TrEMBL record, chain A:
It comes from the Eukaryota. One of its GO terms (molecular function) is RNA binding. Gene3D superfamilies: 2.40.50.100, Nucleic acid-binding proteins. Residues 103-146 form the Exosome complex component CSL4 C-terminal domain. InterPro entries: Csl4 (IPR039771), EXOSC1_C (IPR019495), Exosome_cplx_N_dom (IPR025721), NA-bd_OB-fold (IPR012340). GO terms for biological process: RNA processing. Pfam families: ECR1_N, EXOSC1. This is S1 motif domain-containing protein. Keywords: Cytoplasm, Exosome. It comes from Brachypodium distachyon (Purple false brome). Its main location: nucleus.
TrEMBL record, chain B:
This is Ribosomal RNA-processing protein 40. The lineage of its organism: Eukaryota, Viridiplantae, Streptophyta, Embryophyta, Tracheophyta. Residues 158-206 form the K Homology domain. One of its GO terms (molecular function) is RNA binding. The gene is LOC100843769. It comes from the Eukaryota. Belongs to the RRP40 family. It comes from Brachypodium distachyon. The keyword Nucleus applies.
């Protein structure tokens, strides 16, 4: 049974959890919605949106989803490139707060961990974390996996991954000079980092 | 191009306070100056950030030597630590610094997974600082650079007391300070000095331990002559 009143591509109508979005015979439950027997209901608060079915799928039903909730902000997925700020550096692992995923800012905070063996691709057992990152550095990293309950596992083991922006001990900006060194623009001191090769 | 030797700062071996300008770099070109503790580069000047005496080690290493109760860990220092916790891979050791130090359970001579030492909380350890920087916990070792035990490890019996870092350095200075030399001539004792402001004394008789500890605690900022005369007075009262 096609319900014409509910089939506009929307964004205007606000729905709340539990609210009926349609019947499961006419809609597939997408993000923020779930199928409950014969009805499709919203599971989060947001705006209802209907996505037409892709032409090559056997299922001819439209997908109804609820958008605008922070759960649908950018979420790191394995394989996505993230920008993170290093918060803690320890002997074998560094923690970082993930700020952007694939150039979209996140709506809620995610934590990432860079382990000693994921800092670079060569000589991974001789990595000194103190010469790779310092707290406050901005790094570009790749999400390896969802990790454990506390943090995603990140990796900087590629040329284009690593520290993109950092401050020196004297307080000035650090300018990259090689893939292991950056120089302070105020004092000229050289500091060691795992530097990203930015094109 | 011939590089001139940098002229030493006028303040070497004098007392400095935070803010004092040690060197003006504007009239120096192409020279390397090494800065140790208590000094900071501020654009074209080197300024002191802590109070103490400015020292120079030829040709170009400067640092400020200050004496305080708190210890800032630095690599290759020998320290006396107290075990506060045991973890699967490390002992957590208090060395009077900003944070606890890690002593890996395998950092002992002939250390393997099967013969890990069993240190209780409160054990006194004589160890060497291997890694120390501003962001991570310092790491200790009970071996010297070649892997031998070399007097490192647990200190049993005896008496441990706190001193300032300046007094520890004075006790470890070479040639031997007059205080220890005068005491050693008359009394038999053994002593371990940690650069973190801890001293351990052990002797066959308790009175020797007390005399030595009292003499050390009293000699804070004594000159060499004052040390000798103080020890002589103490020993006269003993006999």
């Amino acid at each position: 049974m096609a319900a014409t009143a509910m089939e506009h591509d929307g964004g205007v109508e606000v729905v709340t959890p539990g609210e009926l979005l349609g019947t499961s015979s006419s809609f597939v439950a997408g993000h923020g919605a779930y199928a409950d027997g014969r009805s499709v209901r919203a599971s989060v608060t947001g705006h209802r949106r209907i996505v037409p079915p892709s032409p090559d799928s056997p299922d001819k039903r439209s997908t109804v989803e609820v958008v605008g909730h922070k759960a649908h902000g950018a979420v790191p997925q394995p394989g996505s490139v993230v920008i993170a700020r290093v918060t803690k550096v320890m002997a074998r692992v560094a923690s970082a707060d993930i700020m952007c995923v694939d150039s979209k800012a996140v709506k809620e905070k995610f934590t990432g961990m860079i382990r000693q063996q994921d800092v670079r691709a060569t000589e991974i057992d001789k990595v000194d974390m103190y010469q790779s990152y310092r707290p406050g550095d901005i790094v570009r990293a790749l999400v390896l996996s969802l990790g454990d309950a506390r943090a995603y596992y990140l990796s900087t083991a590629k040329n284009e991954l690593g520290v993109v922006s950092a401050q020196s001990i004297a307080g000035g900006m650090l300018v990259p000079t090689s893939w292991t060194e950056m120089q302070c623009e105020l004092t000229g001191q050289i500091e060691q980092r795992k530097v990203a090769k930015v094109e | 191009m011939e590089s001139k030797k940098p002229p030493p700062s006028a303040l070497v071996d004098n007392h400095v306070v935070p803010g004092d300008v040690i060197l003006d770099l504007a009239d120096m070109t192409n020279q390397t100056i090494k800065l140790g503790a208590g000094l900071r580069q501020d654009y074209d000047t080197i300024q002191a950030t802590s109070a103490g005496r400015l020292r120079l080690s030829k040709p170009n290493k400067y640092w400020v030597e200050s004496s305080q109760k708190r210890y800032i860990p630095s690599v290759e220092d020998t320290v006396l630590g107290i075990v506060v916790d045991t973890k699967p891979d490390n002992f957590l050791v208090d060395i009077k610094g900003p944070n606890f130090a890690f002593l890996p359970v395998l950092s002992f001579e002939g250390g393997t997974r099967r013969n890990i030492p069993k240190f209780e909380i409160g054990t006194l350890i004589y160890a060497r600082v291997v890694k120390a920087n501003s962001i991570m916990n310092p790491e200790l070792s009970c071996m010297d650079a070649s892997g031998k035990a070399a007097e490192f490890g647990q200190l049993k019996n005896g008496y441990m007391f706190d001193t300032s870092t300046g007094l520890s350095r004075m006790l470890l200075s070479s040639p031997t300070c007059p205080l220890l030399e005068a005491l050693g001539k008359k009394l038999s004792f053994e002593i371990a000095v940690g650069l973190n402001g801890r001293v351990w004394v052990n002797a066959p008789s308790p009175s020797n331990v007390i005399v030595v500890s009292t003499a050390i605690i009293r000699s804070e900022s004594y000159t060499q002559i004052q040390q000798k005369s103080m020890v002589e007075n103490l020993l006269v009262k003993l006999s």
